[in-house]
Amino acid sequence: MGTTYALTGNPNSGKTTIFNELTGSAQYVGNWSGVTVEKKEGNIRNTGVHIVDLPGIYSMSSSSIDEIIAMNYIVQDKPDGILNVVSASNLERNLYLTLQILEMNVPVVIILNMMDEVKRRNMDVDIKKLGDILGTKIISTGSNDRSELKKIKHIVDEDNKSIFERFSYFSKDIIEAVDDISKAVSKSDLESGIDAKWLALKILEKDQEVLSALKDIDEGLLKKGEELKEELEAKYNEDIKHLLAKQRYAFLSLTAKKVIKDTEGNLEKETLTEK
Ligand code: GDP
Ligand code: MG
Ligand code: K
Where does this protein hold GTP (predicted)? Predict the structure, then answer.
């Protein structure tokens, strides 16, 4: 089997543009099985590397058919890596999806697109620093310059020493709950190749779509997840999904403050959001 990468990103991040750039005319269109959502596939020019274009989404939360398609593809078809198109001109918002992909523990390369827009606003992104914080390779591109895309072929496989620690931006009690549940994940679930900690997070969130796609999850495990969920929700007086989202956004806001610069390389007061 050859190498397959999945292309993900928010709607309007430039996913179609990047897909066309990478594949040229070597692409074909079908549908995701069972639904009328378009599925595009192709090969990266002059390589045997296959790319599957996932639907444009804002998060991995089972709240739409597009999100479910993307999540199921990553979990079940297990691509060799994810090419995550991020609009630099709306950085904080776009990185929310990136963070959730990193939580799935799959190899990721960020294609930081729309850098021309950032420069047009007299701003810049410290790409080295962002890559260090997230522990990912970053390819920087914009409509004025697509040359870095040529590096993509091998980049997913390169070694990646990183200080990024999954879930480290969640509060201690949530990290402990995820650890607790993941330790109880059964051997048969692990044999399917699913990441134990990610599954634990989904159990804690009680993500029905994910849980029903994975039949035979141990009843005791679900019950444990439910108990921990109720405990946390009572403690914070907040729905667990909102709680997780708030903690992710706090981390991303801090991250944005560290990487968004002006043209002189000084830290910006403004963040990069769609105007
Ligand atoms: P998708 O929704 O993620 O598939 O995004 P598209 O590829 O359709 O792009 C959305 C819009 O942004 C289109 O008008 C593109 O021409 C434009 N676009 C894509 N990439 C860039 C870029 O790097 N810079 C700028 N300024 N515009 C871009
Ligand atoms: Mg598109
Ligand atoms: K635009």
Answer: 9-16, 34-38, 53-56, 113-116
In the prediction, which pLDDT does 81 show? 92
Task: Give the DSSP H or E segment for 110.
Answer: strand 108-113
Cα of 15 to ligand 1 centre, how many Å? 7
Work out the number of other CB atoms within 10 angstroms of the CB of residue 24.
Answer: 12
Cβ–Cβ under 8 Å, residues 23 and 45: yes
Percent pLDDT > 70 in the chain is 93
Phi-psi category of residue 67: left, alpha or beta, with phi > 0 → left and psi -120 to 50 → alpha: alpha
Q: Which ligand sits closest to the CA of 144?
A: 1
Interface ipTM > 0.90: yes
State residue 226's pLDDT score: 96
| Stated pTM of the model | 0.94
CB 59 within 8 Å of CB 97: yes
Closest ligand to Cα 17: 1
Above 60 in pLDDT, residue 13? yes
Q: Is the minimum distance from the CB of 117 to ligand 1 under 6 angstroms?
A: yes
Per-residue DSSP letter, 213 = H
The vertex-66 CA angle with 65 and 71, nearest 5°, equals 95
Token readout for 247 is 């903690």
Rounded Cα distance, 173 and 137, in Å? 30
Q: How many CA atoms lie within 13 A of 15 on its CB side?
A: 24
Question: Tell me, what's the pLDDT at 210?
Answer: 81
Distances (CA, A) of 85 to 3, 33, 109, 179: 19, 24, 9, 30
Bridge partners (DSSP) of residue 28 are: 41
Token pair recorded at residue 20: 């066309």
